[in-house]
From TrEMBL:
Organism encoding this protein: Haploplasma axanthum
Statement: the UniProt record of this protein carries the keyword Zinc-finger: no
GO cellular component assignments: cytoplasm
Lineage: Bacteria, Bacillati, Mycoplasmatota, Mollicutes, Acholeplasmatales
Encoding gene per record: udk_1
InterPro entries linked: P-loop_NTPase, PRK/URK, Uridine_kinase, Uridine_kinase-like
EC code(s) of this entry: 2.7.1.48
Pathway in which this enzyme or protein is active: Pyrimidine metabolism; CTP biosynthesis via salvage pathway; CTP from cytidine: step 1/3; Pyrimidine metabolism; UMP biosynthesis via salvage pathway; UMP from uridine: step 1/1
GO molecular function: ATP binding; cytidine kinase activity; uridine kinase activity
Protein name: Uridine kinase
Pfam families cross-referenced by the UniProt entry: PRK
């Protein structure tokens, strides 16, 4: 792949269970999987092999230091240069990075979603578009409770304890303040289809080269 190809990088932040992955999946459905690569910041949680399961459960996963942003910054820089990466894969059940990685090739549009993806200045500066997905706290808590029990093998008690001890305080300290960096804020208490249509439309313009500012993936 030649270096004159440049991807358009979109960062999508927002509180836990605000609907980031759902919004991003719907953008992908409208804009087409062929041209859009999705990366979740969760895959970049630090590797914690030296800790026991009991110790890993107690980590504050809503603090920026729990994520390996050096690696994410390096990987995004490589993808933007047109190079492939070996992306880590996180395992929520073992609270640790898995031993497997995934080979990922760049695509014209790269979307990275995660609660803390707008906290690191280096990563913000790589981005062409920054989005914040917003839902009320009670809506997010209910969604998280259901999702963590169904998909992440958590108990009601563990979800409640984690929410009160770390998720909620860190949301106000680190996640919500990054809303000020967003170019677009998507309200997601109910329906986000209009916002998704607008963003998918912009993505299609970029892919087709109909955008004044962006002329990407042109093979000379
Ligand atoms: N607009 C919405 N209406 C109803 N449920 C939603 C909506 N957006 C997301 N959800 C649900 O909320 C849960 C959390 O959404 P998800 O996209 O995983 O959030 P995040 O990626 O921000 O943690 C999922 O079960 C998802 O289906
Ligand atoms: O091992 C872990 C790692 C992270 N978490 C929680 O995940 C959310 C972020 O994911 P969302 O999909 O955006 O909700 C974060 O709030 C961490 O608390 C975890 O529970 N266990």
């Amino acid at each position: 792949m030649s270096n004159n190809k440049k991807s358009f990088l979109i960062l999508v932040a927002g509180g836990s269970a605000s609907g980031k992955s759902t919004v991003v999946k719907n953008i992908l459905k409208k804009a087409g999987a062929h041209d859009v690569l999705i990366i979740t910041h969760d895959d970049y949680y630090n590797r914690e092999d030296d800790l026991t399961m009991e110790q890993r459960i107690k980590i504050n996963y809503d603090h920026p230091d729990s994520l390996d942003n050096n690696l994410l910054n390096f990987h995004l820089s490589e993808l933007l240069k047109g190079n492939s990466i070996e992306k880590p894969i996180y395992d929520f059940v073992s609270y640790n990075r898995s031993d497997k990685t995934e080979s990922v090739n760049p695509k014209p549009i790269i979307i990275v979603e995660g609660i803390l993806v707008l906290t690191d200045k280096r990563i913000r500066e790589l981005a062409d578009l920054k989005i914040f997905v917003e839902s009320d706290d009670d809506v997010r808590f209910i969604r998280r409770l259901q999702r963590d029990i169904n998909e992440r093998q958590r108990t009601v008690e563990s979800v409640i304890d984690q929410y009160l001890n770390t998720v909620k305080p860190m949301h106000y300290k680190y996640v919500k303040p990054t809303k000020r960096y967003a170019d677009i804020i998507i309200p997601n208490d109910t329906n986000h289809s209009v916002a998704v249509d607008v963003i998918a439309g912009k993505i299609k313009d970029i892919i087709r080269g109909n955008n004044n500012e962006w002329f990407i993936w042109k093979v000379l």
